[in-house]
UniProtKB/TrEMBL annotation:
One annotated Gene Ontology cellular component of this protein: nucleolus
Keywords: Nucleus, Ribosome biogenesis
UniProt function note: Involved in ribosomal large subunit assembly.
Family, per entry: Belongs to the RRS1 family.
Protein name (record): Ribosome biogenesis regulatory protein
Pfam families: RRS1
Primary location: nucleus
Length: 282
C-alpha cells in the first residue's frame, strides 16, 4: 500500500466517523410520532425491534431517544420565534396532553374576620398606588417599607399637645404606640390562623378546650383565686357554694411542732402499729 492509499483510507475513516457522530437532522419513521410542544412531549407509537433491542439494549434506546429528540427540536424551529435581550425564544402553543397533578389542588384560604365583615357590608378594597408625594423631599417615594415617603419616625422635633404632660417624652410615647399596633396586628393574625384551623379562642387569646371536665374547671378556678400576692386572702368569692366546692385545693399543709407532748407521740406510734398488725389495712 502506497502513501496515497494510506491517506485516502485515513480520510475515509474520518468521514465515516463524522457521519456516525453527526447524524442527519432528517429522521424517517414508519409511523409518525405525536408531538405535544406545550408539554415538550413526544409519543412514539412505533413497535420495538426485538432483535436489535436484544443485541444491544443501551445502544438501541440511545438511538431511539436521539431520533425522537431530533424530531422535537425540528418541531420547535417551526413555531414562531421572538428575540428578547439577544436571546431567541420560541412561543409554544397550548398543551394537548392532560398531565396529572403531583399534589392535590390547594383548598381556598378561609376568610378572615375583616374579610367576612367587608363581604357582608359590600366593602370593596381599592388598590392604592405604591408611590406617594413626599412634601419634605419634594419627590415621589414609596408608601410603605424602606425609604418610604413622609416618614415621621425620623423627625427630630415633635409638637407637644396642650392636653399632654409637658414632661412626657413624645418620642417614647409614639414608639410605644407603634409597638402596640404591631403587637395587635400579630395577635389578630394568630387569631385568624386559629379560626381557620377551627380552634376556639377567647378574646384574651386563651384556647378553649371542650374536653375539660367540671373538676378541671374547679381546679383552674381555685388556682386562679390563690395566684395573687395575698394567696387568695383578699379574693372575693362570688358564691358561697363555690367556696365549699373548691375547698381543699391549694390548701397549705400544716405541720405540728417538733417539741410536742411525749404521751401524744407515744399514742400516735401505737396507733400506727395497731393498724399494721390488723387484718384490714387502710
Amino acid at each position: 500500500m502506497n502513501s496515497n492509499d494510506l491517506v485516502k483510507n485515513i480520510l475515509q475513516r474520518d468521514v465515516d466517523e463524522q457521519d456516525r457522530i453527526l447524524k442527519s437532522t432528517e429522521v424517517i419513521k414508519a409511523c409518525p410520532v405525536e408531538i405535544d410542544l406545550g408539554n415538550l412531549l413526544v409519543w412514539d407509537p412505533n413497535a420495538v425491534d426485538q432483535q436489535a433491542y436484544k443485541e444491544n439494549r443501551e445502544e438501541y434506546i440511545k438511538n431511539t431517544m436521539r431520533d425522537n429528540m431530533q424530531l422535537l427540536v425540528n418541531a420547535l424551529w417551526e413555531v414562531p420565534i421572538e428575540r428578547h435581550d439577544n436571546a431567541i425564544v420560541a412561543k409554544l402553543p397550548d398543551a394537548k396532553t392532560i398531565v396529572p397533578r403531583e399534589k392535590p389542588v390547594p383548598k381556598p384560604k378561609p376568610l378572615t374576620k375583616w374579610q367576612k365583615f367587608a363581604q357582608s357590608k359590600g366593602i370593596v378594597k381599592q388598590k392604592k398606588s405604591k408611590f406617594v408625594w413626599d412634601e419634605q423631599k419634594k419627590e415621589w417615594g414609596r408608601r410603605f417599607g424602606y425609604k418610604k415617603a413622609n416618614d415621621e419616625s425620623k423627625v427630630w422635633l415633635m409638637e407637644v399637645p396642650t392636653s399632654a404632660d409637658p414632661n412626657e417624652d413624645q418620642f417614647a410615647k409614639k414608639s410605644a404606640a407603634k409597638k402596640e399596633r404591631v403587637a395587635k396586628n400579630e395577635f389578630q393574625r394568630l387569631k385568624n390562623i386559629a379560626r381557620a384551623n377551627k380552634i376556639n379562642v377567647r378574646n384574651d387569646g386563651a384556647i378553649i378546650n371542650k374536653k375539660s371536665t367540671t373538676n378541671d374547671v374547679k381546679k383552674a378556678l381555685a388556682t386562679a383565686k390563690y395566684s395573687d400576692a395575698s394567696m387568695g386572702q383578699f379574693s372575693e368569692r362570688a358564691v358561697a357554694n363555690e367556696e365549699q366546692q373548691t375547698r381543699g385545693f391549694n390548701k397549705k399543709r400544716k405541720y405540728e411542732s417538733n417539741l410536742g407532748s411525749l404521751k401524744n407521740e407515744k399514742d400516735k406510734q401505737l396507733k400506727i402499729f395497731e393498724q399494721l398488725g390488723s387484718s384490714t389495712t387502710k
